[in-house]
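Please, does this match?
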Amino acid sequence: MSTLERLPRWCADFMENKLLRGLLVCAVIAPVFSVFAFHVFYTLALLSWVTLCVRERRLFLRKPPFWLFIVLLVITVLLSILFSVDAVVSAGYLRKLPRFFLPFLIYTFLSPRDIRKAMIGIVSLMSASAMLGITQYYWLMDVDLLNRIHGFMGHWMTFSGQLMLTATMLLSCLLHWKPPGDTAGLGVGPRFWSRYAQPAGWLILGVILWALLLTMTRNAWLGTGAGFVVILCLFSRRAVLAFAVMLVLLFWLVPGDFRERLYSGMNVDDETTRVRIELLQTGKNMVWSRPWTGVGPRMVPRVSTEYRANSKFPDWIYQHLHNTPLQIAAETGLLGLGAWLLLCLAWVYGPIRLLRTDCLHEGSGICQAQAIAAVAAVAALFVAGLFEYNFGDSEILVLLLFLVTAPHVFSSSTAKIA
């Protein structure tokens, strides 16, 4: 008996109409062009889920394999709010916690076909955003380090983070997905894949990487490199060597401004490097002062004057600490940092375990590609996060949550509702 046959008739109709699933797919895709659209679709999806549970008097919810670590992270955030320097201000962070419920809904309701639709939507819109960014660089904007291309986003850091994660997902699919048949239900069979979809994918990847280069965002460059190394290591050792050679050639072929951008990060006399060092010292002082629960979410810019190492820099540079582990430790303490690190390890361990199992259902090729993409995305975000606080952007976090949940949807036959 199928999942739908075990549900009440009206509930089966609800699922077959794909209302909730459609809202979830739209919520996953929406941050590529608008965080407001994400909140609209996600709120509607939550309301639809609540309506379903109330009407049936049953909790329709499946827990993804890493659910316990999400709960642990949320608990540490709540503790940090409770013991914050200003609990009222920190309580404003509560409105961001529902984002961590997204993997539960994805794992409960989305089918492999829905995941594929979301992937296609993300790549399509991200390619359009990348094209807009390229156009901004060459024609629409007077670009400098304080006014860089941003695509559909309002800031180049968010834009570059999206490009980074999309590039890792796309490269993993191009290298590790070999469709055995029309398993996608979207016309993506072996012949279509080799003749049309795969060449188009490589072209889109080139556009995305071109836009990423033009963002002049070093942390995203390094993060993308780390993600690509993970993907290539699982594909071929020769591919890693070829990638290294390509990077060296690219380094010498790009204009001098791009090379200077990399050099400046290693120059302690450079103004931006001096700012990063100051922020590291300020964050260290915060952690040292309140090691277990931190100063509280949203409190770093408010209390920075008390912990800054010197007064040579303007107040606006202390909006965040430009380092994800340090920012989390400063806001939520070592307890929060430990919970976050455990969650990252769970996001990596789960897909690696899937890669080692032989019990994957039909369509395991795309499952393998998604599992590798999940590991690469976590590696990319972690490396980039050593130089930028990227875990706080909803546009980036939603994409990450989708990528780390997707392989578990493919690996579980009971996860399919279609």
User: Anything to note?
Assistant: The mean pLDDT is 87. The CA atoms of residues 223 and 383 lie 5 Å apart. The chain has 18 helices and no strands. Residues 324-356 form the longest helix (33 residues).
